Amino acid sequence: MSQATFDDDELFGEAAAETREDVEQHLSAAREALPTADEIWDTSADNVLGVLNGLKSALDVGEAPEHLRQAKKWYTLGERADAFEDADDLEAEIEAVEELLETIEDVHDDVGELTGTVPQLRSSLQDAHDDDDADD
Asked: Which spans does this entry mark as compositional bias, Acidic residues (predicted)?
């Protein structure tokens, strides 16, 4: 295939389409890596600590941060090259996935703190009630 077969505009158009496709694929992969609503809602635990441990595990975001990073990288490249005719939808999707990921990570941290605190609270409450029973 000779170089004369493609002109610069045609090549740029193909590259822009491929870049947009890369962004969309990485956004899709990021969303797929996030936990489902049922995974964080349903539980089969017998106690609060079991529920918290299950929730903490369910809040694992897997490869979502890396896919989001790749989507942002390709989006930035496309934007700086002025390759997208209309990229508002991509920008909005990136922001939505980023916000959701941040929320999940914040909740994961909160659940982690509770997982450490609840057993201590239980122990303290048992001690307090044991002291009350000893005083009677």
From this structure: 1-12
* Domain spans of the chain, in order of start: 8-135
How far apart CA 125 and CA 116 sit, in angstroms, is 15
- At residue 131, the pLDDT reads 76
* Rounded Cα gap, residues 1 and 83, in angstroms: 25
Query: Which tens digit of pLDDT belongs to each residue from 56-81?
Result: 999 999 999 999 999 999 999 999 99
> Which stretches of the chain score pLDDT less than 50?
1-2
Find all residues with CB under 8 Å of 39, minimum gap 6, and list them.
58
Helix/strand/coil for 62: coil
Cβ-contact 107, 74 below 8 angstroms: no
CA 4 from chain centre, in angstroms, equals 45
